[in-house]
Design a protein that fits this description.
127 residues, alpha+beta, 8-stranded antiparallel beta sheet, 3 helices, 38% strand, globular
Length: 127
């Protein structure tokens, strides 16, 4: 007998881009509870944004430019990365128009081996 267990709670990680921050829903934020810092990157070819969880040792060892390190604030039901510069750089790739739209929400998947949250910019979640 092949049983597929039903998840009673939403396990979909989502990331919402606002004009000044990136907000992670509770599921996505759960991967950063132990983060000391994060770094955010853009994969232009695959149209995705990646957020990497760094512990203190990884952040301080010197192979990551200290100007790339960002704080992530983890609250009870969400997480937030605040940086207008990061949002500005992402907006160039995505053509986000924050004047006509308050936010943009996308699906996000966790890669445990790389400690990366991968945001697929082709998988927008419509409200």
């Amino acid at each position: 007998m092949a049983i597929e267990w039903i998840m009673p709670k939403d396990t979909l990680g989502t990331v919402t881009f606002y004009d000044s921050n990136i907000t992670l829903n509770k599921v996505a934020a759960s991967y950063f509870v132990d983060a000391y810092k994060v770094i955010v990157g853009i994969d232009k070819e695959k149209r995705r944004v990646v957020i990497k969880n760094l512990n203190k040792e990884e952040a301080m060892r010197g192979d990551v430019n200290k100007n790339h390190l960002l704080d992530v604030a983890i609250k009870k039901s969400y997480g937030r990365i605040s940086s207008k510069k990061v949002i500005s750089d992402i907006s160039v790739l995505t053509n986000f128009d924050f004047l006509n739209n308050n936010n943009y929400k996308f699906r996000a998947k966790w890669s445990g081996t790389e400690k990366l949250l991968i945001v697929d910019l082709d998988e927008e979640v419509k409200a």
